[in-house]
Amino acid sequence: MSELIQKHDNRATIRWKLLTGASALALTAYVSSAGLARAEDTGHPVVWIEAGGAFDQLTANNTLWLSPNTPAPQANPTPPFGTLPQAGYDADFKLSLTPNDSDWIYSVGLIYGRSLRGHKTNHDQTYNTRIAFHTAYGAPKYVYTNWNFANTQQRSDAKHLILDFQAGKDVGLGMFGGKSTLSVGVRWARLREAASGHMSGATNATYHGDRPYATETHVIADFLAKHSFSGIGPSIAWDSSVPFAGQPSDGLSIDWGINAALLFGKQKTRTNLHTHSSYCATFIHGCTPGTGSTQTIKRDKTVMVPNLGGFAGISWRLPNAKVSIGYKADFFFNAIDTGVYARKTENRGFYGPFASISIGIGD
């Protein structure tokens, strides 16, 4: 075969304790700050709710697999298994708490994304040599000395889920009159993807006229691969906004930001391979039982995955609302093990245009 291109423990419990602890910290901070906010009101919204979405391009580098004895038509070669979609979408939600008596901001954010499902079919067929001759009745007949065909169907899908818990402080931008927030917190991310395929074909078949005449080899192949990463770790982010028309709280602004995290978690892969070949001939009136193989390959490894992202855009701000458009990116380095027979890591990234709307509640 050609390749083209550990165990349950307490770590999961520790991760969820860390997540719930961060959530409790943010909630406690809000409850105490909300009471202070009611006592001393400075006039800006205490709670911001943000919702948005993005169209993503995906980094989908993957190890590909092609079955042995695959027919190889000349005009349109049989594609290998394992390709992933290269486009998708995100849905984002964020809740921010900004106490009136403080320049601290507490937030929880969620990003859910998935690829546009890939579903491909392919038919390959080649007659390598055609020889014409005449029968006793004078009607021309043809013999194809080598006839190959293959039919393939492939499906693929990818998903990601990201949770952020952060506490940030407004550090300002001085003479520029804008805002700048430096935040620290915890990020949890899960990336999952799957690709499957089926092929049936025949190779080295001789055809006489429009009928199979001599011998042929039937080939069947099935492929299923599932890859995932799930990890949690510390994060840091810096978001800034500078007005260029109007005031910081009522006008247009230029926004940008960067974020980074170091995620610790499990990288898993599972691959199922099945092949079968049988020899068929008209003079034996059928096919031999044939030979085949089935393999299941599993790997499970604890890894550290660096994560780096950023965005740039323009916002129209009102005292109690904000509308934003721009471009964002998020990359996870060496996050997915895409290897078939041996471990091989690949980066995963999501990047593209986004739009969001934010509503402020409470004064």
Description:
The chain has 363 residues and is mainly β. The protein has one domain (2-361). The protein is built from 1 helix and 16 strands. Strands 2-4-5-8-9-11-12-14-15-16 form a 10-stranded antiparallel beta barrel.
Helix-strand topology string: EHEEEEEEEEEEEEEEE
The overall strand count is 16
Q: How confident overall, as mean pLDDT? A: 81
User: What low-confidence regions span 5 or more consecutive residues with pLDDT below 50?
Assistant: 1-12, 14-20, 22-42
The Cα radius of gyration reads 29 Å
User: Count of DSSP helices?
Assistant: 1
| Helical residues, percent | under 10%
What is the terminal separation in angstroms?
67 Å
Structural class: mainly beta
Which percent range describes the beta-strand content? Answer: over 45%
**What best-fitting shape do the alpha-carbon axes yield?**
elongated
Query: Largest sheet, order of strands side by side?
Result: 2-4-5-8-9-11-12-14-15-16
- Count of domains: 1
Largest sheet, strands/sense/barrel: 10 strands, antiparallel, barrel
Structure characteristics:
10-stranded antiparallel barrel; 1 helix; mainly beta; about 375 residues; two-stranded antiparallel sheet
In short:
This protein is mainly beta. It has one helix at about 10-40; strands spanning about 1-5, 45-60, 65, 85-95, 105-115, 120-125, 130-135, 140-170, 180-210, 210, 215-245, 250-280, 285, 290-320, 320-335, 345-360.
